[in-house]
Write a structure and sequence with these properties.
InterPro entries: ARM-like, ARM-type_fold. The protein has 176 residues and is mainly α. The chain has 10 helices and no strands. The chain has a single domain, classed as Leucine-rich Repeat Variant. The radius of gyration is 18 Å and the shape is globular.
């Protein structure tokens, strides 16, 4: 792991790249906290020579059987979604969605909740319709019962967030 002083000096994602691509769990776990702090600071650059490789490395984290690494990967992708604009993230959307949907079937509640939160963030960044057009064929007819169940919960959350709130807003503006 690159030491913290070199990370502060370089101020880009490239120095995290070898650690993100590492298969070693200890390297990934050590990298997470520094990377999370780095991405949480909006003054730090998110420039990366190979952002595609970087994100693919994070998708490997998410798909990992170690729940801490999987959770950490979801968290880092969440931070990247917040920092990248819609057009920058567009090319990664399909691959990210595939991996996140798979995590809806995870045995740990913490992972399923993080995956659902991430999908809701993607709905805010893009549109609920765009995300559901991708999710629906992969989730409701999936062989894993947890993916079906979590997709139904996500649908309810989506309806509460985007349909019911909009109706309440319209009703309140009509009564004023």
């Amino acid at each position: 792991m690159a030491n913290a002083s070199s990370i502060i000096e370089n101020k880009n994602l490239d120095q995290f790249y070898p650690n993100v691509l590492s298969k070693e769990p200890t390297v990934r776990l050590e990298c997470f906290s520094i990377l999370e702090n780095y991405l949480s600071d909006i003054n730090n650059s998110i420039d990366c020579e190979d952002l595609t490789g970087f994100i693919n490395g994070l998708l490997q984290w998410i798909g990992c059987s170690n729940y801490r690494i999987s959770y950490n990967g979801l968290r880092i992708v969440e931070l990247l979604i917040e920092r990248l604009d819609k057009n920058e993230f567009e090319q990664y959307l399909d691959n990210v969605l595939l991996v996140i949907i798979d995590r809806l079937g995870d045995g740990k509640d913490q992972i399923r909740d993080a995956a659902s939160r991430l999908l809701l963030k993607l709905m805010k960044k893009f549109t609920p319709q765009r995300i559901w057009d991708f999710i629906q064929p992969l989730s409701f007819e999936n062989k894993q019962f947890r993916i079906k169940e979590e997709s139904q919960r996500l649908l309810i959350q989506t309806l509460n967030e985007y349909v019911i709130k909009k109706k309440k807003t319209r009703l309140s503006t009509h009564t004023d």
